[in-house]
Write a structure and sequence with these properties.
Strand 2 and strand 3 form a beta hairpin. By secondary structure, this protein is α+β, with helices and mostly antiparallel strands. It contains 1 helix and 4 strands, in the order H-E-E-E-E. The chain is 42% helix and 31% strand. The chain is rod-shaped and about 100 Å long.
Length: 134
């Protein structure tokens, strides 16, 4: 039996195994990177929702307390909402319920950070309806 014909067979197996393990390593690294980006975007999304809610609450205060229902733009500078911009639009209508006249306010709030089309861009839009009925 000729032993020279079987030399090199283990080299082919070792190379195949190395290539498969390297491919699995690359896939694992990519999965970790995608998972980290998903977590970051989920957190940014929650912050954008909070910024939009902040804008709606600010606009509701302006409408109910100050009697100012209009459009405004806010740049948030506190705590976890640094860097978010918020635009609010408020419209009102009067309704008569029995002897009382009630003002109903519809507030739209749009919050965003980053530039549209970039990976770090995130935005949220909310709409709320409030009234001065007691």
């Amino acid at each position: 039996m000729n032993r020279n014909l079987q030399t090199g067979f283990s080299l082919v197996s070792a190379l195949f195994l190395l290539i498969v393990l390297a491919a699995l390593g690359i896939v694992a690294v990519r999965l970790i990177a995608v998972q980290q980006q998903t977590v970051v975007l989920a957190m940014q999304s929650a912050r954008a929702y909070s910024a939009a809610t902040t804008g709606a609450e600010w606009s509701a205060y302006q409408a109910l307390v100050n009697g100012n229902c209009g459009s405004s733009t806010l740049t948030l500078t506190e705590a976890g909402l640094v860097g978010f911009s918020v635009t609010t639009n408020c419209s009102s209508s009067s309704h008569t319920e029995g002897p009382n006249t009630v003002q109903v306010y519809v507030i739209e709030s749009f919050a965003w950070t980053g530039s549209y089309g970039t990976p770090d861009y995130v935005s949220r839009r909310i709409r709320s309806t409030i009234s001065d009925a007691s």
